[in-house]
Hints:
Residues 97-133 are annotated as: Disordered. There is one protein chain. Helices cover 29% and strands 37% of the residues. It is an alpha+beta fold. The protein has one domain (2-97): Alpha-Beta Plaits. The protein has a four-stranded antiparallel beta sheet, covered by helices on one side. β2 (36-52) and β3 form a beta hairpin. α1 runs antiparallel to α2 (69-81). The longest helix has 17 residues, at 16-32. The chain is elongated and about 70 Å long.
Amino acid sequence: MALYEHVFLARQDVSSQQVEALVEQYKGVIEANGGKVGRIEHWGLKSLTYRINKNRKAHYALMDIDAPAPAVKEMERQMRFNEDILRFMTIAVEAHEEGPSAMLQKRDRDDRPRGGDRDRGDRGPRRPREDRE
């Protein structure tokens, strides 16, 4: 069986519980067709770069899939008919990543405190402006 990473965007006005129900629905489709779903990540409600069907935000979700191609095709076919799904993308991969995805790592990095408490390292204090050239 082939390995896939699948990301979909759900409308902004659906709840997190409804997004989880969508994930479970499509997980059932994959499993019914002889595949299995590994890691599932909910990236939350994020702003879109451009509006899609009058939506400025969307719920993002990632699924790692180990399934035959017909199972993935059937899941994508069902997603086309669901009005809660704005976009989806499935990519074939050599191996699934271990640990959190880059999006979750970014969220962890963004949660760190910012501002004046940054460590300047061993650069020392800044010189006055007239001393710099």
